[in-house]
Amino acid sequence: DRIGLLDDAYALQKAGMIPVAQYLELAEHYRDETEYAVWNNLCSGLGGVIARLTNQPYHAELERFAKSLLGKIYHNVGWETAPNEDELKPLLRSLIIGNMGYYGHRGVRYASRRKFLNYYLQDKQSLDPNLRDAVCNIAAWYGTKTIYEAMLCLYLGAESQEEKSRYLHAL
C-alpha cells in the first residue's frame, strides 16, 4: 500500500529511527504518482519535515527538493479544469498548486497574484472555486499592499462564514 509505506517512513524519520534523507529518497519514487490520496499524504509528510527543519541551513534546499518533486504533477494537473476529468482532480490541482506556492514557485506565485487581482477587480466567476483558498493564500503570502487591502476588503464584506474564513486565514 503506497500510503501505508509513506506513513511508516514518515513516522520512522520523525521518531529518529531513520534519517530524513531516507524518507526524502522514498518520496522521490512517487514523482509519477497521480492519485490525490497519495499526494495528500506525501505533501503532508513533506510539509511536516520541512516545517520541523525551518531553522536549518539546508531549509532552502528542502524547499527546492519539494518543488522539484511536485513539478511533474503540477504540469500534469495545470490550472484549468479539463472536460470530463476525474472528480478528485480538482482537489489534487488545489493541493499541488497550494504546495508549489507555499514553497515559493515563481510561476505559481505570479499566477496566483494575477488570478486573485482579476477575481477581485474584474470577474468574480473567473476563479475556479476549488482554487480560491490556494490562490488567496499564495497571493497573501507573496502579495503587495494592494493585494493585502483587497483581501481585507473582501474579508470585511464577506457574506458567508466560508468566505470570511478564507480571507482571514490568508491574511
Report on this model:
- With about 170 residues, this protein is mainly alpha-helical.
- About 70% of the residues lie in helices and about 0% in strands.
- It has helices at about 1-15, 20-30, 35-50, 60-75, 90-100, 105-120, 130-140, 145-155, 160-170.
- Helix 1 runs parallel beside helix 3.
- The termini are far apart.
- The mean pLDDT is about 95.
Which key phrases capture this entry?
0% strand; 171 residues; 9 helices; mainly alpha
Our count of helices gives 9
Strand content: under 5%
Q: Return the average pLDDT rounded to an integer.
A: 93
Number of strands: 0
Q: Provide the succession of SSEs.
A: HHHHHHHHH
Our measurement of the CA-to-CA distance between the termini, rounded to an integer number of angstroms, reads: 38 Å
Helices and strands in order:
Layout: H1 2-14, H2 20-28, H3 36-52, H4 59-77, H5 89-102, H6 106-121, H7 132-141, H8 145-157, H9 161-170
Helix pairs in contact: 1-2, 1-3, 3-5, 4-5, 5-7, 6-7, 6-8, 7-9, 8-9
